[in-house]
Amino acid sequence: MVTAVRSAWRDVPPYQVRQFATLALAEVPTLAQDILREIRHEYPQLPLVLDEFGEPRALVGIRQSLEHFVTHLTTGPDRPHVHPRVFQEFGRGEGVQGRSLDALQAIYRLGVRLAWRRLAEIGQQVAIPAPAMYELAESGFEYLDGLVAESVRGYAEAAARQAGERLRQQRRLMEQLFGLAATRTRRGGSGPGTTGPGPAGIGGVPAALAERAARLGWPLPERVAVAVLLRPDRAAVAPAVAPDVLLDMECERPRMVVPEPDAPGRRELLGRAAAGWSGALGPVVPLAAAAKSLRWAGAAADLIEGGLLPAGELLQCTEHTEALVLLPPEELIDDLTRRRLAPLDGCGPTHGRRLAETLLAWLETRGGAPEIAARLGVHPQTVRYRLRQIRELWGPEVDDPDRRFELELVLRARRLRGELN
Q1: Rg (CA), the chain
Q2: Helix, strand, or coil here: 76?
Q3: Bridge-partner residues for 50, per DSSP?
Q4: Do 222 and 192 meet the contact criterion of CB atoms below 8 Å apart?
Q5: Cα-based torsion angle of the residue sequence 45, 50, 51, 56 in order, rounded to the nearest 10 degrees
Q6: In angstroms, what CA-CA distances link 143 with 39, 71, 140?
Q7: What single DSSP character describes residue 318?
Q8: Contact at 8 Å (CB) between 197 and 207?
């Protein structure tokens, strides 16, 4: 059984409490001035922000908090406080200015210490018992915690607002960057430095885009690579990328613009930041051609979703050139496959696949039966038999350079899709 702790403050006669509160409230204006003066002496860098009436906001906050705390004593120090909202403004101001809350909390502690010194004097003056004053001191520190919590709330709101605004600015910058190629095409531009009418910025980048980047604090790089990511789930935490990497998490497929991706250690850091995500990093291109890198990264992401490229990591498009060249134009490759591999239609699926694998090995190596047999893991005589069949099925086509090239294309595409070994 839990025994309720008796409140020493509640044992103080009501007339003494009223007497204490009356004297304390009368002291509030002077005490607030004294506290602010001492704070500014200890923290001269503290900005003195005025409210709409020309009064320092800090002075208003000190006075309101003192009045609220003292008035609250008449109802009992154990009742919940409703803290002055001006302390949210203090925290919000620290967040907007990019400062931490450490100095603000130190200032609050100084103010409480100075206030408690005067309240203790008044307590002695009206003969408040020591146990009740100790309880009042505990209530004062709880009240301080509440003021800090209000400031933290305002600080967090400011930080969230700033982060949200920065992300919006990043998205606008990225969209503007990706739209450069289309803009240049519409204006009839040509050449890497062409931007069409209007003032040009750095490296073929329009001045308007350069200005937006400058407002965001993003130095224009010479070269970039664009990544397209696939969400592991809807609640996935955004990759912890470096501050100079532009990130758009609002898309169904999040996108990143990575400046100077060939800088030492950049790709390793990017891979660690995107751990747990699937996606692809497009080729490195000049800044004004970022849309090209985006296009290849998107194509690779399509193949990852289709199971044709490995998932669970950030792939480099340049390491999967063959798949990106052969697999995305699916209709064209399928049509060419039907025409060039038509001779296999009557061979049955198993024998047709073996002939196709033998043909591909021959096209890639142009070696003899022993070399092809070693590659396929079969007997050389089996390879000779299959090559004779291939000659019978395709005839002189296998000696035509253009036909051989097309056959190798379609057979490599089939192997990339897992249809051939």
Answers
A1: 37
A2: coil
A3: 56
A4: no
A5: 70
A6: 19, 13, 5
A7: G
A8: no
Residue type, 189: G
Identify the H or E element spanning 117.
helix 102-125
Give backbone dihedrals phi and psi of 154, rounded to 5 degrees, phi first.
-65, -40
Please answer whether residues 207 and 198 qualify as being in contact, where contact means their C-beta atoms are separated by less than 8 angstroms: yes
Is the pLDDT at 164 greater than 80? The verdict is no
pLDDT band at 283; cut points 50, 70, 90: very high
Q: Which two tokens stand for residue 98?
A: 């990019």
Mean pLDDT over 166-180 rounds to: 87
Number of C-beta neighbours around residue 200 at 10 A: 16
Residue 311 burial (CB count, 10 A): 13
pLDDT at 112: 86
Average pLDDT over all residues of the chain: 83
3-state secondary structure at position 124: helix
Which of the 8 DSSP states describes residue 206?
B
Residue 176 amino acid letter: Q
DSSP strand pairing (285-286 vs 223-230): antiparallel
Q: Do 223 and 260 meet the contact criterion of CB atoms below 8 Å apart? A: yes
75 CB neighbour count, 10 Å cutoff? 9
DSSP state of 5: P
d(CA 300, CA 303): 5
Alpha-carbon distance of 270 to 274, in angstroms, equals 6
Residue 145: helix, strand or coil by DSSP? helix
Angle between helices 57-73 and 86-96 (to 10 degrees): 140
The answer to whether the CB of 28 falls within 8 A of the CB of 21 is no
**Residues of the chain with pLDDT > 90: what percent?**
23
Helices 349-365, 369-376: axis angle to 10 degrees equals 120
Alpha-helix runs per DSSP H in 126-244: 130-178, 180-186, 207-216
Give the whole-angstrom CA distance, residue 355 versus residue 272: 44
Task: Find the DSSP H helices in 57-99.
Answer: 57-73, 86-96
Give 386's contacts (C-beta < 8 A, 6+ positions apart).
Answer: 354, 355, 358
Environment class of 359 (CB within 10 Å of its CB; exposed 0-12, middle 13-18, buried 19+): buried
Whether 128 contacts 20, CB under 8 Å: yes
Contact 193, 202 (CB under 8 A): no
